[in-house]
Please model this.
Amino acid sequence: MRSTNNFIRALAFGYRIINRFVPWHKLPWRPFPHLSLRLWNLPALRYDLRRDNLHDTSSLPTIPRPTGFTLPSVPTMRGIPVPDSFKVPDPFEPRDLKYRRADGTYNDLGSPRMGSECSRYGRNMPYEKRDPLGEPSPREISNRLMDRDSFKAAESLNLLAAAWIQFMVHDWARHTPDVFDGRNRFKIQLPKEDPWVSSGFGNTMEIERTLPDPTRPKGCPARPPTFLCDGTFWWDGSEIYGSDPQMQQNLRAGTDGKLKMDKDHKDRLPEHPHFPGLDLTGFFGGWWVGLSLLHTLFVREHNAICNMLKAQHPAWDDDRLFETARLINAALMAKIHTVEWTPAILGQPVLKIGMDANWWGVFGEQISKRLGRVSRSEELSGIPGSELDHHGVPFSLTEEFVSVYRLHPLIPDEYRFHSLTKPDQSLYRTFDDIQGHNTRNAIAMIGSMEDCFYSFGLAHPGAVTLGNYPHFLRQYIPPEHPLPTPRMDVASIDILRDRERGIPPYNRFRQFLRMPRVKSFEELNPKWADKLRELYGRSDVDGSDNVDDVDTMVGLLAEEPPEGFGFSDTAFRIFIVMASRRLKSDRFFTTDYRPEIYTQAGLEWINDNGFESVLLRHYPRLGPAVQGLGNPFHPWRNVHEPAPE
Model:
């Protein structure tokens, strides 16, 4: 193990020198990708990012909370007890050695609150104080740079790839807006020519602040400000299972470890009792057909895992079946994201090798399946089953991680739904027709869940670039919002949130990642240089471009991605460190990824299944559309057209 660490340390030193002259994605990789300079640059980058870009916020000053204090949560409006960081609220139980808690406590047995519900977001770089309403105005950026003039498709992907990342982000990271303090909202004054005004939405756009961290002392001078996660940071399937015991209990069927399905429509989730048209699940913010498909699929997969475990262990009770199936299902979703979704959106051969190595190790899937772990090293035998390591900083997800996963351009405004069995039947819908309270009726009108999956498999998401932000999100009303509210321009909110939470501007963001500054608007993006200059202007001192003022989200969307990538290299740097950290810091993916916890059959279920097999287990008629594609997040086959020779 020590020799492996010394090798990676030496590798990182060498690549620091190389990358001064050539970025990793321009290094050669042919003819032997596994031995290429480009591939081995990735673990070297990850080593440096782990060393320099993990900053702890949990050690900042904390005050005990009054008895009974709760943090209001949106959209579920459940009361979440705010933890006292100096006390363990619930005593340790022997079952904590084997199972995940709903609220994420006791994942790390030495630090029970780490990563749990209401934990503080960490940082990948120092906080930078900024004026959320500063110039240019978030709304002006939305109007000038974000508005979708025409839909730009990401033709290498299907629409399930867009729904998948929303599905995953709802598991990892959620902030709570301060919906109850109407006096303290951000107010953006709009000129009369703004479309918002002419549409009758008013001449002021009000945006709720992120709920301040109530565990910080008032007037505390320590920086940075901190915010709490509405959910757990662990990769635990909380978007399906919920993040508190009561919600989890409400979702369970109460027999054989299973989750509830609709009594009248056995292949659908139950309807939410308080939000008509939405499904009952662990988290339903931003609900639409895409989320309904994936939530339903993996609830059904949980129940299938329960059937497998019940057949092997007929004496197990409901709790043991549920908890073990939850572990297996969450790990399967993590595997799909790691070895299927990520290589699909980051379409380079070396990234496929690298992400496979994250899960299986450099010896690959077949050696791992046949021989198991041949080394304790994560590089050689993969992260699952390796030694747990927080790399010197208590685990959390970060504000920068949330920032780079603002991928709203992936979502189209218009949809065409196809029938698996009737080649001439099509149904055209807008996003408003298939989201929020319309979701369940939309699926019923389309015909079946299989028709919906098939249609998403044929369709493309949007490209993650400027000028491709969905129209509907720029005048959006969240169906789960608890209070009457004006429509939201989510593009404006995205810009404002980065500023509010202290995300540095784009060039500073790059510098903290040891990347070169962009020196001009033309260097950033020649097509958009004039509009960027009009917004961000020139310096009054020497007349040079104020490119250092460009907001991070604008820069990430303007930046030309590496060949095959669905998003920028700058965003990828955050991805490199945090993608493996979600696995490496989790006991249930490292030291407790073993048969005594998962069962041998459970580990084999994870090993032997992927997105395609999960789809076909529950929707076998999709077979002709997906089989043989190589990656189910690539565009599917049209079953009504002749197969290519």
About this structure: The longest strand covers residues 414-418. The radius of gyration is 24 Å.
